[in-house]
Amino acid sequence: MRPLTLDVLNQQLQEVQYAVRGELAIKAELYREQLKSASQSLPFDKVISSNIGNPQQKGLDQPPITFTRQVAALSEWPALANLAPGVFPPDVVARAKELYDEIGSIGAYSHSQGVPFIRKNVAKFISDRDGFPADPDNIFLTAGASAGVSLLINMLITDPSAGILIPIPQYPLYTAALAQHHGRAIPYYLDESRGWSTSVASIEAGLAQARKDGTSPKALVIINPGNPTGALLTRDTMADLVKLCEEHSLVLLADEVYQNNLHRAAEHPFTSFKKVVRELQSPIPLVSFHSISKGVSGECGRRGGYFELTNISAEVRALVYKLVSVGLCPPLSGQIGVDSMVRPPKEGEPSYALWKKETDTIHAALASRTQLMAARLNALPGVSCVESPGALYLFPKIEIPSKAVEAAVAAGKEPDAFYALALLDDTGICTVPGSGFGQKEGEWHYRLTCLCPGVEDYVGKLERFHLKFTEKWA
Amino acid sequence: MRPLTLDVLNQQLQEVQYAVRGELAIKAELYREQLKSASQSLPFDKVISSNIGNPQQKGLDQPPITFTRQVAALSEWPALANLAPGVFPPDVVARAKELYDEIGSIGAYSHSQGVPFIRKNVAKFISDRDGFPADPDNIFLTAGASAGVSLLINMLITDPSAGILIPIPQYPLYTAALAQHHGRAIPYYLDESRGWSTSVASIEAGLAQARKDGTSPKALVIINPGNPTGALLTRDTMADLVKLCEEHSLVLLADEVYQNNLHRAAEHPFTSFKKVVRELQSPIPLVSFHSISKGVSGECGRRGGYFELTNISAEVRALVYKLVSVGLCPPLSGQIGVDSMVRPPKEGEPSYALWKKETDTIHAALASRTQLMAARLNALPGVSCVESPGALYLFPKIEIPSKAVEAAVAAGKEPDAFYALALLDDTGICTVPGSGFGQKEGEWHYRLTCLCPGVEDYVGKLERFHLKFTEKWA
Description:
The structure is a homodimer.
Chain A (H helix, E strand, L loop, with lengths): L22 H14 L11 E2 L16 H11 L3 H4 L6 H14 L12 H15 L8 E4 L1 H13 L5 E7 L4 H8 L3 E6 L10 H14 L2 E8 L11 H14 L2 E5 L17 H7 L6 E6 L13 E6 L3 H13 L5 H11 L9 H27 L4 E2 L8 E2 L2 E2 L3 H9 L4 H13 L1 E2 L1 E2 L12 E4 L5 H18 L2
Parallel strand pairs in A: 1-12, 3-4, 3-5, 5-6, 6-7
Antiparallel strand pairs in A: 2-8, 7-8, 9-11, 10-14, 13-14
Family (chains A, B): Belongs to the class-I pyridoxal-phosphate-dependent aminotransferase family. Alanine aminotransferase subfamily.
Cofactor (chains A, B): pyridoxal 5'-phosphate
Subunit structure (chains A, B): Homodimer.
């Protein structure tokens, strides 16, 4: 019997990297366990998970939207509406009944593409948002956006020379999925000096490099609002990017999961790529991703989302259907979560006032924390930070003293991972080093979420640590 | 702009076939839509989905276990326990509180491997079942068994010459996942004349053929209880299979999702491969899959399950962790469903009596339907059917008149697909042709579930159709 060792397994998979749940997150879990056993002494009394956009996790405790959870509870046990009369608002009872009539039990597999009725509601949400029609047959409900992105990358990678244009910095799902499916990442750089803006010139540079490397570009990934940057594209840039996809025959993969996380919406509104493609009457194939994990919903644990196919033929759509059918269907709890996201209570309905109050509170907290954290980080020596107009994160640039860089290299760590590990060891704050997202050679960043309550205390810890670290390695 | 056509996409994916949700299932959905609009006349008044083990779907309506759904409803909206006092039994309230204390909000991402507390409960379930310890660190919660199977196949396929031994007939997830990950299926044949038994000799024959074809065998898939066959392995056969894996350095992938669907448990009990491997003190790497979609739970829509790694090193386990972490976590509704499956109410607890009644009813209905359907099918001319001791299906062998075979070939269909399509067109009963699972050359079968209520009426339709079809093509 030959033992099962790494070298007898698929080597390509060993290239997969996913820093958001990597070394630091694993260490943070160990610290959390240690804190439970009183015998261990650590320099902090709690672990703060700023590494991942997970609003409802313990310690952050962003409350779920009551409407969403009431509908879900009734879907789990429909008899409740009669057993607990008056406990659920009448619009919730009506909504749950409507879903039950359409779906039946949420314990059954649905259509592999998602419940037809919910896809109809998603299509209406999209057409109301954009002013252009959407077809429920082009909507695929998914277990979060990640599952859809991975599927599309699998479809687009025809051979090991195929590549996909990925922003740097990027959300590492993209490089992980490319590694898993034997494809190449073609990097293009966002411009930090202009608020992490995207330019056609930088993508053209990426394409030129790909040609030199013998890489065949298949698609362009755009994350808007950006992750980890929080940047928002302008309508003009979006039009230029659509033209670029036309010119180079690229499929556009538009990751729009943060479309409802806008901190200064008047100044920086969100426009969908679907709308721009339709306005320009462009023929480019577009796949747009959305999710219930972000926005004000923050329902990460349900695993719900969708993607919409635009300018994609029925035969290609049939292939997508066949592939998703092997996994049977997305979780029904995620599907009904999507329904609540695209059909929130309307003005005049019994649940509206509470829904409005809850969502306003979440928006306001995120905006004010983002602003405060950016201002305080920018005031630190050796730190500069674009104040994100969208998404859930900040991505400060940090200067790391050369002695610390040397110590990092000696320890076999990237210097920003060395910094982030020291931050975790000292304060219990878990972040993700910029090297996990990609950055320009010789620059260092880290990503942290703006989800933490008690932001004054939290920023205070970041400040004290940074000053201490800088002094230690001066 | 070059349009996005099938030929510019990953060709390998076009080989993926998944008959359970294939041509027949799609046609059945169209019929269902047609029946809603009164203008269409069809020779039946309802579509019966016998193509998939989906107990809670509309028309089958196997009721969910009340305990499971009560715990889930409280997890969705914890305030309910106080808002509706007395509605939930006290053990349900206590269970939901215990889960909340451990997990926090089910709207948060959990540990990528699954909630540690739930993995502990799974480990206890396994050790109680087998009499050997299980380690929570070796348990991975999943979105149904399918997600885990696909991941393991991806890991094991090192290059396009790598193959995995697959029973024929098989559940088509295996060949679909192999096609997706560029691997080869190495077929071995189950013996219908001996109740679909598995033999070492047939696997040895598969291995010999693989050597001739230049295929490098990596793993052996065993489905026990069988799908589509419902067969159960004996302890002796299991021991032989473990020895065979030792000899040939094969990873054993044990699909045990039907372990709780036993119709004659005294005569045909279930033994897990984990238990046999431990009893034999065998070093073979084993991955065992279980699910909440089958059994008496039937919670397909939650997407919950787990796999356990046995005799697998920490470094390989770390690779598994890294890969699952890219998808963030399995759905929490599935995870708490797993918890309810492995920790049902105990005798003496308030929810026990109802739980016992509900599960006994489901077991009894499945056993009696399986027996009745097998007897009636066996009485038909040209039909023979092994009476399954386990799982949810029958897989009758059918003789197809040669004129029908010719007509099928002329229509570009497999003869059993031709038969199953005619059955659907005539009766509204949707099944899966045997060709979707694999069968011996020149033999024909179809798979149907034993989940349909109104079994007399249902079998009557099957009988009348079969006689009509046989007469038509005589």
